[in-house]
Amino acid sequence: MIHLEIFLIIYFSISITVSQWYGVLLGSHFAAIQCKEQYVSSLFHCAALGRESKDVRFFINIENKYCRWNCTYLYTKETQNKEWKIYGIEEKRNAAYMRPSSASSVYSNNPSLWGTSYATDGLHSFVKGTEIFASGWEIAPWITITLDGPLVISFVRVYNRDDGGGDRFHDVAFEVSMDGVSFERRGFFKGPGLTGQVVEILFDNPTIGKFIRLRITQGSWNLLNLAEIEVYTT
What we know:
disordered N terminus; 18 strands; 6-stranded antiparallel β-sheet; mainly beta
């Protein structure tokens, strides 16, 4: 059995040039619900299950050799149960923070209350449904973030609004582009989302791009609203 906790890194290669790895997380403000669970033979076995389902994080009770993966997460002020060790993809840099952004529309044409800048301001909470990004009602609303150059993208994290209307986040394509014109899908969230949910989408490696777009792809009358988008690079 492996006993290296703080310094343990479970390394796995997806290409010969770019890699992702799980490391120990000392705490989390995400409450895990609706997880898959099973007995595992080792920590590596649990990591393999997480990798197969493209999880950004997984949980293991080393003493009982029990694994949780493929979870749904809710944002919470409480930390994770100490009986479970948390392993996650390393968060080197949130490349979306304070970066320029654009959208197909803004709710009520009022960017001071629902503009795209609220999606990258580093704040996950808001007051009375404002100071978040919200599009207008349309068929396929989208928001695009311009990064500070072509970057190797590891995963994207989205904080859904926490005051209601979480189910509006559904059938969302996570797309990447080098020029802001031609986009390629690199992830997908079926949903519908939950109020207060945190959605993490692990991209295939290598995924390189300068523009990240989230776009609702199903339905005839949609509103895209969310509290924050974080883009983590390798």
